């Protein structure tokens, strides 16, 4: 038997500097955590690869050294490659660029 899907919702701030007349918005994506690594960066890569190729973000080393993936996750400025997705926490994770 397959494991029951364990979906988390990611609300991601979206804005395109090439279309400044379009206001920024939050966009929702659902990810089955049984099919994804445990870090926020893993989920972002999965969303980009499987749901929305227009999603862009910076990443490089995936080891917390370079700082490329710094963003605001659930109100904390942190690195997406080091930020674990808490299975027990609320099912929605909010992601913004650094202030």
From TrEMBL:
Keywords: 2Fe-2S, 3Fe-4S, 4Fe-4S, Iron, Iron-sulfur, Metal-binding, Oxidoreductase, Tricarboxylic acid cycle. One of its GO terms (cellular component) is mitochondrial inner membrane. This is Succinate dehydrogenase [ubiquinone] iron-sulfur subunit, mitochondrial. It is found in: Mitochondrion inner membrane. Its EC number is 1.3.5.1. CDD domains: fer2. Belongs to the succinate dehydrogenase/fumarate reductase iron-sulfur protein family. InterPro entries: 2Fe-2S_ferredoxin-like_sf, 2Fe-2S_ferredoxin-type, 2Fe2S_fd_BS, Beta-grasp_dom_sf, SDH/FRD_Iron-Sulfur, Succ_DH/fum_Rdtase_Fe-S, Succ_DH/fum_Rdtase_N. It is an enzyme of class 1 (oxidoreductase). Component of complex II composed of four subunits: a flavoprotein (FP), an iron-sulfur protein (IP), and a cytochrome b composed of a large and a small subunit. Its main location: mitochondrion. Transmembrane segments: none annotated. It is a peripheral membrane protein. Its cofactor is [2Fe-2S] cluster; [3Fe-4S] cluster; [4Fe-4S] cluster. Coiled coil: none annotated. It catalyses: a quinone + succinate = fumarate + a quinol. Residues 20-99 form the 2Fe-2S ferredoxin-type domain. GO terms for molecular function: 2 iron, 2 sulfur cluster binding; 3 iron, 4 sulfur cluster binding; 4 iron, 4 sulfur cluster binding; electron transfer activity; metal ion binding; succinate dehydrogenase (quinone) activity.
């Amino acid at each position: 038997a397959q494991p029951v899907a364990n979906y988390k919702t990611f609300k991601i701030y979206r804005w395109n500097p090439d279309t400044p007349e379009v206001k920024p918005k939050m966009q929702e994506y659902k990810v089955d955590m049984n099919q994804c690594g445990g870090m926020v960066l893993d989920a972002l890569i999965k969303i980009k690869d499987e749901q929305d190729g227009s999603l862009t973000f910076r990443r490089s080393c995936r080891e917390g050294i370079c700082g490329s993936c710094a963003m605001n996750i659930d109100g904390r400025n942190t690195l997406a490659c080091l930020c674990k997705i808490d299975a027990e926490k609320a099912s929605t994770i909010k992601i913004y660029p650094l202030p």
